[in-house]
Write a structure and sequence with these properties.
The complex is a heterodimer. Chain A contains eleven helices and two strands. Chain A is mostly helical. In chain A, strands 1-2 form a two-stranded antiparallel ribbon. The radius of gyration of chain B is 19 Å and the shape is globular. Chain A: InterPro entries: ABC/ECF_trnsptr_transmembrane, ECF_CbiQ, ECF_transporter_component.
């Protein structure tokens, strides 16, 4: 579990020095969020929807290529979608409206269209998010969120969570190794009597660690804020490069709206 | 469990984002009351705990296993406001680092899993804890019911949002019944895991359990010995 360098949270990061890696993190966050907004705003029932999805797919694949994120990596990122593929597959069966005959099954026409649209949009956004996670370290993402004026307390909570997730997950892994080396095999309901207390003691250890961390911070002069230098200026070129993705996607959408 | 991009239309996503932002702002104030200036490290470590414990697969019977959502467990352990922040932080990390849950749907996910699930679960817990006897069993039963309710209620809230801003015209009754039914089963697992984990913490460090403060007042849990032997001074 923690075998990957960078731990549980850093597992998504792909070290590199592509132009996408070098972009300031807050610009990448804005770009991916803007891209996702454009994808969500694409009307599902329009005739040209699939052309627009295709254009968006081309854009996000281009971004992945520039970032050096390979197809295997993108495919692994898509695995997260599986539960919602199941939901989308159900839609043609439960949706109302006129029916069409597909392979001997009477499916709802609007349900089919909606399910296709859902899957396309979710896939496009997941691809963009995978490129973001693969080119930005968790630490940099945090700096980006701070730069985007997320409340300071929330940023600090996020920071502690990111720093200590590997520690807490490591304790969990050691507990599992200890359990299993004593012959534990959690296959039936009775295992709850073992796993429950394990999770409970993990909470006690996490909370007590939080108290110790707080005292250590106080002794080093913590007064509710973390020190940080002034944020570096962002050249206009970086803005242009980052916004190429959402602006390109918006151009595809606008073309569809005008011509369709 | 997390809503991806594109399931709800843009206006609904924007509306839930506004609700989530307001809720998180309230939770930031509330968590300061619960944890004072220790908020950042303790809420951060609690969020790391929630994230880690979501990776544990608990066997829940009939050969299936499930993992915890942890909203109600966290609320009873560290207080509802801090728990809402923990869930928010976990959802943000999952969306940004694992593409689990859409970026435009972060507001929806925080509203459903952070605010609705914890709000309903904590409300049920408080109501029951007031009615039931202030014993260990009473607290555990109240937490179990709260955890059970939180899952189908969040699923039904999602169904409601899907009816408002979904992109398919589905028969609402059918979807509500299916979502409610499936998630009632998941809720049973959530309740079982919550009760077992909470019981373990109550046995070791009852003073850490936010939702069991009444218990601490009713029975002196770690009382000093009534008389210290003379030789021990």
């Amino acid at each position: 579990m923690a075998a990957v360098h960078g731990g549980v949270l850093g597992a998504a990061y792909l070290a590199g020095s592509s132009p996408v890696h070098r972009l300031p993190p807050h610009l990448k966050l804005v770009a991916v969020l803007g891209f996702a907004l454009v994808v969500v705003a694409t009307p599902v029932h329009a005739d040209w929807a699939w052309a627009a999805h295709g254009g968006h797919l081309a854009l996000v694949l281009l971004a992945a290529a520039v970032a050096g994120v390979g197809p295997a990596r993108l495919a692994r990122g898509l695995a997260i979608e599986v539960p919602f593929v199941l939901f989308a597959v159900l839609l043609p069966f439960v949706a109302q409206g006129p029916r069409v005959e597909v392979a001997g099954l009477a499916l709802s026409e609007s349900g089919l269209v909606a399910a296709g649209g859902l899957l396309a949009k979710a896939t496009l956004s997941v691809l963009a998010a995978v490129v973001l996670a693969a080119t930005t370290e968790p630490r940099a993402l945090l700096a980006g969120l701070e730069r985007l004026r997320l409340p300071a307390l929330l940023v600090q909570i996020l920071m502690f969570m990111m720093r200590y997730t590997d520690v807490v997950a490591g304790e969990l892994a050691r507990m599992r190794v200890a359990r299993e080396s004593r012959g534990f095999r959690g296959r039936h309901l009775g295992a709850l009597r073992v796993l429950g207390p394990a999770a409970g003691s993990l909470f006690v250890r996490s909370y007590e660690r939080g108290e110790r961390v707080h005292l250590a911070m106080l002794s080093r002069g913590y007064a509710g804020r973390l020190p940080g230098g002034p944020a570096p200026a962002v050249p206009a070129r970086a803005w242009l490069a980052a916004l190429a993705l959402p602006l390109g996607a918006a151009a595809v959408l606008a073309t569809g709206l005008l011509l369709g | 469990m997390h809503v991806p991009d594109g399931f709800l239309d843009a206006p609904t996503s924007a509306a839930t984002a506004a609700v989530a932002a307001a809720g998180v702002a309230l939770a930031l104030r509330g968590a300061r009351r619960e944890l004072d200036e220790r908020t950042a490290p303790l809420a951060g470590l609690s969020a790391a705990f929630v994230f880690a414990v979501q990776m544990v697969n608990f066997p829940v019977g009939a050969g299936t296993s499930g993992h915890l959502m942890g909203g109600v467990l966290a609320a009873v352990l560290v207080g509802p406001w801090t728990a809402a922040l923990c869930l928010t932080v976990v959802l943000v990390v999952q969306a940004l680092l694992f593409a689990d849950g859409g970026l435009t749907a972060i507001g929806t996910n925080v509203t459903l899993l952070g605010l609705v699930a914890i709000g309903v679960g904590w409300g049920a817990f408080r109501l029951l804890a007031a009615v039931l006897p202030t014993t260990r069993g009473g607290v555990l039963a109240a937490a179990g019911v709260g955890a059970f309710l939180s899952v189908p209620v969040a699923a039904l809230a999602f169904t409601g949002l899907f009816a408002l801003g979904g992109v398919a015209d589905v028969a609402l009754g059918t979807v509500a019944a299916a979502m409610g039914g499936v998630h009632a089963l998941i809720g049973l697992g959530e309740a079982a895991i919550t009760v077992v984990v909470l019981g373990a913490v109550l046995a070791v460090r009852p003073d850490l359990v936010h939702g069991a403060r009444a218990l601490r007042r009713a029975t002196l849990l770690a009382g000093r010995p009534p008389s210290v032997p003379a030789g021990a001074r």
